[in-house]
Every structure is written in C-alpha cells, then in structure tokens.
Structure of Receptor ligand binding region domain-containing protein:
Amino acid sequence: MQPPSRSAAVDPFNNLCSGDKNGIGGTVTAGNICQGLSDGTLAFDTQRTDGQNKLLAAQAFKAQQTEQAKNYWQQAIQQEPYDAEALIYLEDQCVRDSGRPYIILVATAILEGVYINSGRSDLQGIFFAQHEYNTYAGLAQCQHIPAIDFPSTNKGTQHVQALPENTLVLVVIANLFTDAAHDKEASQQIAQQIIQYQQSNYNPERFIGIIGLPTSNITGFAMPILNRAHLPAVSQNASGDNLAEDFPYFRSVTPTNNDQARALSDFIQVNLSDKLHKKLKHGLILGNQDDLYSQNLADDFEHNFAGPDTSSKRKNYSKITPQYNIHNILNTALDKGIDFIFFAGNSDDASELLQDPLLKQEPYKHIPIIGGDTLYNLRGNYPDTARGRMYFVGFAFPDEWDQQQQMPLFLQNYGKNPLSWSIFDPTHKQCPDGPYGCDRADNHAILSYDATKTLLEAARRALLRVPTPPHLTEEVNNQLNELHGANTVQGVSGLLDFAPNEDGVTRLQNKTFLILSIDEKANTHIEYIEQQDHLGS
C-alpha cells in the first residue's frame, strides 16, 4: 500500500473524502477541506507528522480491515501521542471490539485554518472524557493509549460515575470548514449530516447528542436544524446571549457575552483604572461587522459601559470589504481622547490590529486593549506590542486550581502537579510546539472536557430512567435541565449549574470565569476571578 501525498488539505487518494447513505463521509469544500462525519472512515487533520498513518488507517477501516486500521492508528499515536483524532478512532475500535453496549456522541471541531489549534485541543478534552468514562467502566486498555491514573481516594478528584450496565462511550468526529463567507452553508450542511447519521438504522437508540458547535456563529446557523430534530448539543465555547433562549436543545458551559461584557466594564472602571492610576472613561469599540458573535459582544459592552461619566465610540471593521479593514478603521477612529480600545474580534484579528504602526508610537504605544474570550489564544503568538497592555476573558485557565487543596483528575493526568507526566506525553518527549496541547491543558481542552462530562452525566441519568428508550435524545435533554442544585456538575472550569432563569429559560448560572492579562514577558496571568466562590473544591 503506497503512502498518500500530503501536498494538499484534502488527499484525493482512494476517494476517501466521500459520503455514504448513513451520514458518515465527507465533501470537499471551497477551501479544499474535507468536511463531514468520521467514525474512522476519514482522517481530517492530516497536515501533521502522523497524517499519512491516519490516512492509511482510514483506507483500511473503510475496507473493513479493522486490525490493519488499528495498527496504523497505533503507529500514528506513537508518532504524535497528543493527536486526539487518532486516539478517538483507536478508542472507538476498542469499544466496538469489546462487544459491550455503548452510546454515541458526535464531537464537532474545526480542524483547519486559524482555528486548527483550538480544534485539536477540543478533541483532546473530548477524548479524555471518553477515555475516563470507558476506563471507569472497565474497558480493557487499548494498546498505545495511556492509562488514566485514578488516585486511591475519590475525595476532591471529581470522578465520574459509570454509565448503567457499564455502558461505554463512542465518539464520531465532525469536521467543520468555517470562514466569514461560508459559515452558514457549512454549519447547516453538517447539522443535516448529523441528523442523517442519527437516524440511520442502528443509531437512534444509542445516540445521545452533540459536543461542540464551537462558535456562536456556527451554533446560530446549525441549531435551528438540530433543534427541530430534538438533538441536544452542549457547546464548549458558544456564548451568544440568546442561544439558550432560542434553542431549548442547546446548552453551553460558558457564560454569555453579556456576562463577560458586564464583568469587563466593571474591571476597566475599577481594577484596571486603579492599576494604571488613571480613570479609564472613554473607549473605542471595534467590532467585526461580518461576525454575529463580535456584534453581540460589542453591543453588550457598549450597553454595559454607558454611564454619566463614561462614553464610547463604536466602529466596525470587515474582513470581507477591503475599504473597511482594521487599519483603515483604526486610523480614522482613534484620537487622543480615547483611554482604551475594546476589541470584539478574534485573536487573529487582534494580532493584525497590534501590527498597526499607530499602536507602536506615542500617545498610543501603551493604550490598553481589552476584549472577550476570543482574544484568549495560548498557542497563538501575539506580536510584542501586546505585552503589558492586553486584557481579556478566559472561560478556563489551567492555573485557576493552584490554590485549591485537590486538583481535578483531568489536570492531574494532563501533567499538572502532583503528577509529573501527561496522558498526551507519556514518554516525556519534547513537546514540539510548547507545553500547551502536550503536557499543559489549554482553555479549549478544559472546556471541551467539561461539555462532554455534562452531556455524559445527562446521558447517565437518562439511561437510569429509561433503559431502552426509543428516543434517548429527548430524555437526555430533559436530564440536562435537571443538572442544578444537588445535581450540579463539577467541571474543571467551575461548577456547571443549569437552572431556569426568571423567564423560564434553562441556562448556565453563576459560572466562574477569569480576566487574564499578558505581561511584559509575554506570560499570561490571572488578573481577576469572577464568581470565584463557585469554583468548587
């Protein structure tokens, strides 16, 4: 068998990126990306060292040569032990080989473009939850998948509870192609494909829901379709204000845009003003006019910052219309009366902003740049002009448990003390791209783990109520509504309490999140913890 070429994002050999009648398969998008659903039949993230072995595994799996496929996945993991796509496919095959009952969830990720590191981390968090549940249920250890180290005592470690009858967990991966011009089409297409897969002959009684829909834009386009099909989705990162209200089958483990805008407004007027010994009263708000999340966050901050002694100027940039690019908008809007910039775009756009010559000279050389959770990119490289001036929301941070007596099992097995090893770096190899994603968890891995744990806890409760339900997803959604009070889920990022608000809409309540900063040495630090009493223990 000849190894495939790796010269393009989609490798055409053996026509791997194609579909079938059960919803498994892919299509080549405008960006030459393979978008679709894979149970091992496809390999999405192939532009890495183990890409050839994953493609060969997919070819073998599609030909029903499962032992050969397992061999290639094992080789891939030996090359890159932190590649969660390969780990998930191998774990899935071990689940099938066991002959035991299992439930199915679809994990959506973006394994291309500017979001590729986030997508890789998302799959790490999802894999860890899958592996944790399966290990706890007694699944025999798969070769080349490291064992989870369960401490001798349950106290403080937040162990999961095994699913009824030691049911196992199988994960199907959905890869999304996303950019400003194609978000809607891609999101709706993947939603329809998930429904097709769920409704295939053998899945309705085992399918429990979706993890992911990793951005507010994708969620807004995909959830109308998934909601009509009564398929629950738990997002690790979508923070749009009205998503829970508009879609009863949607949950997120993150606070809303309004929550973070309110906290940032207070932080600027009190904490940051005190730190800089200057009252920050006048802001320039920059939002991406082509991005629903950005517009929502900019609206929320403008509303929360408005007051008798404060003011803001709102401007929108565009990644599609050249005359409204970031630099043109900044140079026409920034003046000496501006105390700070509130940037509602993503980290890629923020890097572009920070390269503007205007921000490298007086009087704007040190002007604070403040934004929401999409500016938090631990594996991205901001230019030097970010140092000492950037502040942003983090929905999770690996150091937030440092002052706690007991650390979550997830962090312990990801290389955080007291253990000195990582499940994604078991042989202590040098991490090629730094510690994050190898032996230090980033925010995306943490939040994806929490989202998966939330959905699996709802599934556990659903299976106890209806052991062989004809429509398991309906009961899973009902049980998501019950995860509050005594049933609150302890996540790594904080307590996950889904309770109805005054309007009867079930959404996350009182969730811990942080405001972080980049210091003069380019290190990320905690500046402020919102709702820190709800971190748990």
About this structure: The domain at 33-255+399-500 is CATH 3.40.50.2300 (Rossmann fold).
